């Protein structure tokens, strides 16, 4: 008859218990990590719509005579409420602009749509009297431009600076002394 020494069975059972607990803890950590990732993905807010409001009180129409022909340019202004800089917001903005909308404005030599990040609500009179106090280069986000009904391009701004497309124009000071000949 085979006999098992006393204590061996207990040690083996305790070792198995420790191994089982370690395995359960590892599985639990993995499950918690997966839940956290799924929660983070689920909580990432992807905008499904944009609130774009016209700022008609500061829209501008300029007519000028050039070689006997009158050219009219129009600048339409809009504010975007709760703007977030992400690809989905840009997609929604593009859908709003609908390049054909610029084509409909073909009666203007140049038609520009400017989009600003919304600032504090102001009344129409205050906005009309002091537009640059509320909507200026600092909160300008995008400009879409058309020329004679053809879409010409989009410019993106951030903190008052043009960031897209990058400007390739460099302005240098003109030397004050004449160059030797």
Automatic annotation (TrEMBL):
<keyword id="KW-0472">Membrane</keyword>
<feature type="transmembrane region" description="Helical">
    <location>
        <begin position="23"/>
        <end position="42"/>
    </location>
</feature>
<keyword id="KW-1133">Transmembrane helix</keyword>
<keyword id="KW-0812">Transmembrane</keyword>
<protein>
    <recommendedName>
        <fullName>Lipoprotein</fullName>
    </recommendedName>
</protein>
């Amino acid at each position: 008859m085979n006999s098992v020494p006393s204590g061996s069975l207990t040690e083996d059972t305790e070792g198995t218990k420790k191994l089982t607990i370690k395995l359960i803890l590892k599985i639990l950590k993995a499950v918690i990590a997966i839940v956290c990732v799924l929660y983070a993905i689920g909580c990432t807010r992807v905008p499904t719509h944009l609130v774009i409001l016209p700022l008609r009180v500061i829209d501008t129409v300029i007519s000028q005579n050039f070689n006997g022909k009158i050219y009219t340019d129009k600048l339409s202004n809009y504010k975007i409420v709760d703007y977030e800089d992400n690809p989905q917001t840009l997609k929604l903005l593009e859908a709003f602009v609908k390049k054909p909308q610029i084509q409909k404005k073909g009666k203007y030599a140049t038609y520009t749509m400017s989009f600003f990040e919304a600032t504090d609500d102001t009344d129409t009179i205050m906005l009309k009297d002091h537009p640059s106090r509320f909507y200026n280069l600092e909160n300008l986000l995008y400009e879409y431009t058309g020329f004679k009904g053809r879409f010409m391009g989009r410019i993106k701004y951030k903190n008052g600076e043009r960031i897209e497309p990058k400007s390739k124009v460099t302005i240098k000071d003109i030397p004050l002394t004449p160059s030797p000949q």
